[in-house]
Automatic annotation (TrEMBL):
Gene transcribed to yield this protein: B3GNTL1
SUPFAM superfamilies given in the database record: Nucleotide-diphospho-sugar transferases
Domain Glycosyltransferase 2-like: 14-182
Parts forming coiled coils: none
InterPro entries in alphabetical order: Glyco_trans_2-like, Nucleotide-diphossugar_trans
PANTHER family: GLYCOSYLTRANSFERASE (PTHR22916), UDP-GLCNAC:BETAGAL BETA-1,3-N-ACETYLGLUCOSAMINYLTRANSFERASE-LIKE PROTEIN 1 (PTHR22916:SF3)
Protein name: Glycosyltransferase 2-like domain-containing protein
Source organism, top-level taxon: Eukaryota
Length: 354
């Protein structure tokens, strides 16, 4: 970092750091801010969400080190009995910051030295995009399938795979964007614990025509541990948001479609759809001979008379477009081989939902 003499000038990049009881990781996290090789002006905006541990002591210690190296540090927070949540903390950290670009960082993660520099280069070229990056997981063997998905999505899949249970196709702790674009899309939902504020922001971003870019270098050590805020969001909450987004963004473009998976997940999706969208489902498809032999799925809870009976076909007999409710990377490549054999185009002929 070069020290910048003119303190009155707004910094070019603000690192946005919400903190809640992060004493275990803060030293490494803040060291990684100090180690950035970006030579422009940079500030760290920390918002402490009622931490009860030694987080503030650690932050105050690093404020001196960072400011001595030319990084402006802005600290806000509150000491209420309970935290207000990640969405609130991020909004507050952004509001008190002044950089032209926002670099999001979680207090338990560690940035590689080139992160700010490389993501800024990408964000400057794509002013209406969220820019992410590849990650290294810690511990290395945790969430292997999810980590592969994060790191290996093709550029067009960053937009076609936005409906899966994995959530945003570039993960929130890697986000980098212009302040102007954030202000146009935001702020984060402040519903508190249990609300997927990153997913809701990501959906708003896509609705407003935003792009999704990934810098194909591993620029973040992404920690997995039981206390992570991610674990506080109910799967049913995320499911409901995902189904509504699928109905809003994808299904209107199709006159009819087939649900690929006649098992639990496929039937659950069918039952979760609005009545109008259910009527577009012409079939389920599968490879399970028992399900195919049964011939149909009857929606017993339907108010319609007669109750809808949806055919169950072998996937080769079914017609696209497909909404695929089969988890990727779980069948030793068998499902992926079947899908490839149909020579379909992702986004046009099929979408992944699981």
């Amino acid at each position: 970092m070069q020290a910048h003499g003119d303190r009155a000038a707004a910094p070019h990049v603000s690192i946005i750091l919400p903190v809640y009881n992060a004493e275990l990781w803060l030293d490494e996290c803040l060291e990684s801010v100090l180690q950035q090789d970006f030579e422009g002006s940079m500030e760290l905006s920390v918002f402490n969400d009622a931490s009860k541990d030694k987080s503030m002591t650690i932050i105050e210690k690093w404020k001196v080190k960072l400011e001595n190296s030319g990084v402006l540090v802005v600290i806000g927070g509150h000491d209420s009995p309970s935290p207000r949540g990640v969405g609130y903390s991020k909004n507050q950290a952004i509001a008190q910051s002044s950089g032209s670009y926002l670099c999001f960082l979680d207090s338990d993660d560690v940035m590689m030295p080139q992160r700010v520099r490389l993501q800024l280069e990408a964000a400057a070229q794509h002013p209406t995009s969220i820019v992410g990056c590849q990650v290294r997981r810690d511990p290395p063997n945790s969430t292997e399938r999810y980590t592969r998905w994060i790191n290996q999505l093709a550029p067009d899949q960053l937009l076609t795979q936005v409906f899966t249970s994995n959530g945003p196709t570039v993960i929130m702790p890697t986000w980098f964007c212009s302040r102007a674009w954030f202000s146009y899309v935001g702020p984060f939902d402040e519903g508190g614990q249990g609300e997927p504020e990153d997913l809701l922001f990501f959906y708003s971003h896509l609705r407003k025509g935003g792009g999704v870019i990934r810098v194909d270098q591993s620029l973040l050590l992404y920690r997995y541990h039981p206390n992570a805020a991610t674990h506080s969001v109910l799967e049913t909450t995320i499911w409901t948001h995902r189904v509504r987004f699928l109905e809003e963004r994808a299904l209107p473009h199709w006159a009819t479609f087939t649900i690929w998976n006649a098992g639990r997940q496929g039937r659950r999706l069918y039952r979760s759809l609005t009545a109008g969208m259910r009527r577009k489902v012409v079939a389920f498809c599968d490879v399970d001979e028992n399900k195919i032999r049964k011939g149909f799925y009857c929606h017993e809870d339907s108010q319609e008379r007669p109750k809808p009976r949806v055919p169950i076909l072998h996937f080769r007999a079914a017609r696209p477009p497909f909404v695929i409710c089969v988890k990727l990377d779980l069948t030793g490549g068998a499902f992926e081989d079947n899908l490839r054999s149909l020579h379909l185009q992702e986004g046009r002929d099929f979408l992944h939902f699981s």
